[in-house]
Write a structure and sequence with these properties.
The complex is a heterodimer of chains A (326) and B (582).
Chain A: H1 18-28, H2 30-47, H3 49-56, H4 97-133, H5 135-149, H6 153-163, H7 170-198, H8 201-208, H9 213-249, H10 261-268, H11 276-311
Helix pairs in contact in A: 1-11, 2-4, 2-11, 3-4, 4-5, 4-7, 4-9, 4-11, 5-7, 7-9, 8-9, 9-10, 9-11, 10-11
Chain B: E1 8-17, E2 20-30, E3 35-39, H1 46-53, E4 61-68, H2 77-80, E5 90-91, H3 97-103, E6 108-111, H4 115-118, H5 125-136, H6 141-154, H7 160-165, H8 173-185, E7 191-195, H9 203-218, E8 223-228, H10 231-237, E9 240-245, E10 248-254, H11 255-260, H12 265-273, H13 278-288, H14 300-305, E11 316-329, E12 332-345, E13 349-353, H15 360-367, E14 375-380, E15 383-384, H16 391-396, E16 400-403, H17 417-428, H18 433-446, H19 463-474, E17 481-485, H20 493-510, E18 513-518, H21 521-527, E19 530-535, E20 538-544, H22 545-550, H23 555-563, H24 569-581
Parallel strand pairs in B: 3-8, 3-9, 6-7, 7-8, 13-18, 13-19, 16-17, 17-18
Antiparallel strand pairs in B: 1-2, 1-4, 4-5, 9-10, 11-12, 11-14, 14-15, 19-20
Classes of the chains: A mainly alpha (326), B alpha/beta (582).
């Protein structure tokens, strides 16, 4: 035995690739896989909307008054479902409902995803800076976070859409508004995780050996909060999609005639007695995509969590708690 | 004591969680009036054996037998043992939860490691102790108060009324642990389980707690099961010792037999790995043997490791000049460091010793630029240390390497070992990839780890291996100063020994200066040529380690040395006698 050998207690645990185990655990969760399938289906629906449109010859903008009955409700059973119009047609205009839902998926997903990206980017930067630098920067950013968190989002968004000139693209405006109000929750989570990581040996060792602050944040801290950010992103997308639908429902979303689930739902409410399918299709679309992202995010968190719990302190905050926030 | 019947008997007791077997075939006898020490390294199944018997180990499955014999004759048992009319002999394995609850606290008391965590912070201490009485008897509230008071007095707390009124955060760790023992023994249990009762406490406090436990056995006639990893504690108060390894008892015997004639290989290894304070052992054994004091001949280990700093007027690797740190929080001022003057000569190992809160880590933080000085100056390699470093000052930090205590926190869990060792080189040098890779391999070799560890991630390493990687990272740039803040306190002794040897070897080869921070005097003696003793943020004494540890000039240093239990039953017995006589 050499002078400095490893004692019997210095055995390493079995080697295992982390990424593989996450995917395996995700695969094993039926809920997560159902969520993933739903999400993929809706992404395909959005991407392939023009293809479907070309195949069936139905445009979301084309009026078909010939398909409407005398009371301007769709002629035929179940809102006029037929081989040509899979979801039936819209009352009063006769536009193809499937085209509206599939093009509406484009709007919903685009705004939902882009707004999420905006809020995650802002929230992560704010959280990292506040948590890592502390002191004055922390006080300033934390108060700002509190202010935005408590801001009456809907009133602000409605007021804004009334005052912003029509020349500003609505989609862009919605992305910015929803995204800008969505970052406080992620900022708080990132800040608290950064605060605890900052005290860990490897961060102190890096600082002691002269590594610059930016490099420490990027190399040492960021990789350790990445899992939290991914999970948080997934579970906050449905909230953003819901926020877009809510604004469109209130009439301050994307401008007509651009299809939108929220506006369709709003319009369908007055038709629900005569033509319930008009409400059910866009409503189900909104419900299923929200459910899909939530189930997937939930499963993803469970898949990432056991490894987390074993190797480091559990995530500081529950990302689900903010899932409903815009 | 061979003819005394056991109060609690484990026979062929096994614990498993599902299909995972934790302990197997454990047989122990707890005899009234004596202390049985259950020793072993972390994860060997010591605590789970005791906790499972009480039904406190969650979903643990048990086989075998744990028998309360009820043969104990307690001092004053007639008045205190309320439930004595029930069948005194009972089997604990397989006992239903309700019956087990009557045993806990009434017939078996438990003292846990962390006194701060064992008390509920929201209730007064007196209330919580009274709770233990109410749980097992229907005495009137007035009498409970005086009973608690009496019990606290017995546990060595001189102002019981004040203690009873206090909330846990208002008391010190030592006071709380005494209160915990009062709580555990207030129903005069026949058996007392003490699970690492002094591990979270400072050595000077530890002595008192151990005395109290000894008194519980000797005076109150309780059968004490002392679970510990510290052989010094065992030598101090245990009568019998059971050595546990991987869930099995490898050896049982009297404390003298275990220490002087260990039968099993494992016991011998365990004892060999324990760092010993040679200075004290020699001085004390001299006293024990009634020989005249042999004075200046010792310190073979410590002087050998150092490269005789006095001979060469070496440059300073680091220096503190009248360095003071004052923390201000809500109007209160706490002095963490009180005008400390410290010089660490290049190429020497300076040991920094002191109890928790003495400012050891503050000094490390100041030197690494993590803590601003309220006044005074800090230099590393001749350059001023600043918390807001300029480019030049940051480059200066490449002259420092650091190793921290917690092996789990010392490495970034998301980056490979190789990338982490390479990081300082990427920051401070413009070496090429291949060059860095070669250097990483060399460093891994230096810390006696295989080259292919570079691709591994921290969760694939054991605690000792992680500390080795942390050392490799600290040495990546050939620093002039290595700061090691309790690098081995979280490790088992056998692993600790390997890491300490490695540090000594690396020091000889690379000739860096080292500031070695520890609460363990024996570790310091083994490694350091100079010792600095800290108390309340100020330096009490400093000098060559052989001199300071063998002939301390300050009372506090003397107290520290005397409190640290030595893994030798004779010396501890002599010291105990001396202490109790005083």
């Amino acid at each position: 035995m050499p002078a400095v050998s490893q004692g019997p207690a210095e055995r390493a645990p079995a080697e295992r690739t982390r990424r593989d185990s996450v995917w395996t655990r995700l695969r094993r969760s039926r809920a997560a896989m159902t969520g993933l399938v739903l999400v993929v289906v809706f992404i395909l629906l959005a991407l392939l909307a023009p293809v479907f449109s070309a195949l069936t010859g139905n445009s979301p903008f084309a009026y078909n008054p010939d398909l409407l009955g005398p009371d301007t409700a769709p002629a035929g059973p179940l809102g006029g479902i037929s081989a040509q119009h899979w979801f039936g047609v819209e009352p009063r205009t006769g536009r193809d409902l499937f085209a509206i839902v599939s093009y509406g998926a484009q709007v919903s997903l685009l705004i939902g995803l882009a707004a999420t990206v905006v809020s995650i980017v802002v929230g992560v930067i704010v959280g990292l800076v506040a948590g890592f630098y502390g002191g004055f920067a922390d006080r300033l950013l934390s108060r700002l976070t509190d202010v935005i968190f408590g801001f009456p989002f809907l009133i602000f968004a409605i007021a804004l859409s009334a005052t912003v000139p029509a020349s500003v693209p609505r989609t862009l405006l919605l992305i910015l508004v929803i995204g800008f109000f969505g970052w406080p929750s992620i900022a708080r989570v990132v800040r608290s995780e950064t605060l605890s990581l900052k005290e860990r040996g490897f961060v102190r060792a890096a600082a002691a050996q002269g590594t610059g602050s930016v490099r420490i944040i990027v190399r040492e801290i960021f990789p350790n909060i990445l899992a939290t950010i991914i999970v948080f992103t997934t579970v906050s997308i449905p909230g953003k999609i819901g926020a877009e639908a809510a604004l469109s429902f209130l009439g301050v979303g994307v401008n007509p005639p651009t299809p939108s689930w929220g506006r369709s739902i709003s319009d369908a409410i007055s038709w629900v007695q005569v033509d319930p399918m008009y409400l059910i299709f866009p409503g189900m679309a909104l419900f299923l995509v929200t459910l899909g992202f939530n189930m997937f995010g939930d499963g993803l968190r469970d898949a990432l969590d056991p490894a987390e719990a074993r190797s480091e302190s559990a995530a500081a905050a529950d990302p689900m708690s903010a899932g409903g926030q815009p | 004591m061979a003819n005394t019947a056991a109060a609690l008997e484990f026979s062929d007791h096994s614990v498993s969680f599902g299909s995972r077997i934790i302990t197997e075939g454990v047989s122990l006898e707890l005899v009234p009036g004596s202390i049985l020490a259950l020793v072993g390294e972390s994860g060997s199944g010591k605590s789970v054996t005791a906790l499972a018997a009480l039904g406190l180990a969650g979903s643990a499955g048990q086989t075998g037998s744990v028998r309360l014999t009820g043969s104990a004759h307690l001092a004053g048992a007639d008045e205190d043992l309320a439930g004595a009319d029930a069948d005194p002999s009972m089997e604990l394995v397989g006992l239903e939860a309700k019956a087990l609850r009557r045993v806990r606290g009434a017939r078996i008391g438990v003292v846990f490691q962390e006194p701060m965590g064992a008390f509920n912070p929201m209730f007064r201490v007196g209330h919580q102790i009274a709770e233990a009485v109410r749980a097992h008897s229907a005495s009137a509230d007035g009498s409970i108060g005086s009973q608690v008071r009496r019990q606290l007095l017995k546990s060595g707390l001189d102002n019981p009324d004040q203690i009873m009124r206090a909330y846990p955060h208002e008391l010190s760790g030592g006071q709380l642990q005494r209160a915990m023992i009062a709580l555990a023994t207030i129903n005069s249990p026949e058996v007392l389980f003490a699970d690492e009762p002094t591990t979270a406490l400072d050595v000077t406090v530890q002595t008192g707690i151990l005395d109290l436990l000894r008194q519980q056995a000797t005076d109150e006639g309780q059968a004490v099961l002392l679970i510990t990893h510290d052989m010094g504690v065992v030598a101090d108060i245990a009568d019998r010792v059971a050595v546990m390894k991987s869930g099995r008892i490898v050896e049982t015997g009297t404390v003298r037999d275990i220490f002087h004639h260990p039968k099993s290989e494992y016991t011998r290894e365990l004892l060999d790995a324990v760092p010993r304070l040679n200075a004290v052992v020699e001085a004390s054994s001299a006293e024990v043997a009634d020989r005249p004091r042999s004075t200046e001949q010792q310190s073979n280990g410590s002087a050998g490791a150092s490269s005789s700093p006095a001979a060469v007027p070496a440059a300073l690797a680091a220096e503190l000049r009248a360095a003071t740190v004052v923390h201000r929080s809500s109007g209160r001022q706490v002095t963490a460091m009180d005008s400390v003057d410290l010089a660490i000569p290049a190429g020497s190992i300076t040991g920094l010793v002191g109890e928790s809160g003495s400012g050891k880590s503050t000094i490390a933080n100041v030197l690494t630029g993590g803590q601003r000085l309220t006044s005074g100056q800090a230099f590393v390699d001749g350059g001023l240390v600043s918390t807001r470093p300029t480019r030049a000052q940051r480059r200066l930090r490449s002259e420092i390497g650091v190793v921290f205590q917690d092996p789990r926190g010392s490495l970034n869990p998301r980056r490979s070992v190789g990338a982490q060792i390479a990081e300082p080189m990427r920051v401070h040098t413009d070496r090429g990839r291949r060059d860095i890779e070669a250097r990483v391999k060399a460093l891994l070799g230096d810390v006696r780890l295989p080259e292919n560890f570079a691709q591994r991630y921290p969760h694939e390493l054991s605690g000792g291996q992680r500390q080795r990687v942390a050392i490799a990272r600290a040495l990546a740039l050939d620093p002039k100063l290595l700061i090691a803040d309790e690098p081995t306190s979280a490790l088992d002794v056998s692993v600790q020994r390997g890491v300490l040897r490695l540090l000594a070897e690396l020091h000889e080869v690379h000739e860096f200066a080292c500031l070695f921070i520890s609460h363990d005097l024996a570790v310091i003696e083994q490694l350091a040529s100079t010792v600095v003793v800290l108390q309340h943020g100020a330096i009490v004494e400093q000098g060559p380690s052989s001199q300071v540890l063998a002939h301390p000039s300050q009372a506090y240093t003397r107290e520290l040395i005397d409190s640290a239990p030595v893994p030798d039953p004779e010396i501890q017995a002599a010291r105990r006698a001396a202490r109790l006589a005083a």
